[in-house]
Every structure is written in C-alpha cells, then in structure tokens.
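To whoever is on call:

I kicked off a structure prediction for a single chain this morning and the downstream step that reads the tokens threw a length-mismatch warning. I double-checked the sequence; it's 259 residues and nothing unusual in it as far as I can see. Pasting both halves so you can look.
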Amino acid sequence: MMTLAFPARVLEANARVYRRTFRGSVVSTFLNPVLFLLAMGVGLGKLVDAGSGEASLTIPYLTFLAPGLLAATAMTTAAGDSAFPVMAGIKWRKTYDAVLATPLGVRDLVGGHLGWIAIRLVFVTLVYSGVMAAFGATTVVEGLVSVLPAVLTGLAFAALVTAYTSRIKDEQWLSNLFRFGITPLFLFSGTFFPITQLPGWIQPVAYATPLWHGVSLCRGLALGVEFGVNPWISVGYLAALVVLGSVLSTRFLTKRLVK
C-alpha cells in the first residue's frame, strides 16, 4: 500500500539530484521562452499582424501565441523528463532496481516521479508566465492563472510518456516519440495558429490531442477569449489521461522490474 511518505522519498531523491544538475536546465527554463517570444511572437508576429483576409487574427499574434507556448512548454518539459531519465532508471543506471530493493514499491516510484515533474512544471511555467507578462502578452494575474492548466497538461504527458518508456526496450523508440509525436503536436495542436486552418480531415485528430485541450485552457484563461470546448471537458480529459498514464506506468514497470 502506498503512503505519501514513500513517494516523497523518491521526490526528495530527484530534488537532491537536481540540486547538482540544475545548471543544465537554466537555458531551457529562462532563455527559451524569451527567444521563442522574440522570434515568433515579435518577429513573425509583425508579419502576421500586418496581414489581412479570412485567416487574420483579431488580437496581436504575440498575445495569441504566448499562452499556447506556455502549454507547449509544459508538454515538452514533461515529455523530456519522462523519456530518457526514465529509461536511464530502468536500463542504463538501474536506479529503479535500487529503489525497489528498499521498502518502496512501484506505485511509490511512479508517484514520486510524477510528483517531482509536477514541481518542475510549476517552476518552469511560472517563469514562462512571467516572461509573458514582461512582453505584455497578458497580465501578471492572468498569466499566473494559466499556470494551473499548463501544469495539468504537462502531467498528462508525463504520465503517458512514462508508461510508453516503461514499455519499450530500445531507446530508439524515444527518438521516434519526439520526432513523430511530440514535435507534430507542438506544431499542429493550435499553438501557432488556429486548427481551423488545418485541412478538414485532420482537424478532429487535432481536437483529440491533449495539447490542444491544454492550449485551449491556457489561452481562454490568459486572454479571456472563448474556449475551444467547455473547459471542464478539457480538465476532465487531461485528468483522465493523468490517471490512465499513472495506472499503465505502474503496470508496465511492475511487469518489467518486479521479479
């Protein structure tokens, strides 16, 4: 039976490791949001705002883009922390075997892992929301409110990617995940343009992606615009994916690690 104290031990271990390795994430945490908003929001945004026609936006492109990038950043952060680090714990460094040699179980391992990613997501998205406000894309309060759905979006991906990584044996499948999964989602789930601009046959696929629901929530809360779908549907959908991914992660890791 899992108690909160046991996952907290896994979370503490991750925090102790991160205390010595955090410098490697400084660029992605602080510099990436600035560069993205400068290049895409300010640079490309001038061209988009100068356009006209049916596809033109009613708000500045920087304002439109920033909340979408917030959700997308949560996705990429969570996926990155649930891919190669999990494979390292299973296959390369075998730290998961060491954890399971203690009184901790697989549920504790998964709970602590996802708990640490949640903390990471809160920190990363808070930084991003501050950058959004500094660029004038949204207010400080609206930026802070949009952190919550961004974290939920990231946790959905963290749980699902952890389950995926727990299942595969060859790390080449992790590269395929980012090449054929995460990157297309980043580009075609409403982050950079409304998905109504996609061909009609692919729009239902885009609506079904977790990132689209995260973008819809972040954009609706940060900008006060209409949600793409009832926000409680998006919250329920993302929460269900967190639960599903957690259950599958526990099942796959148990089958793989517990002899």
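Update from on-call: the warning came from a stale cache, not from the record. Cleared it. Sanity check on the structure: The two ends are 18 Å apart (CA to CA).
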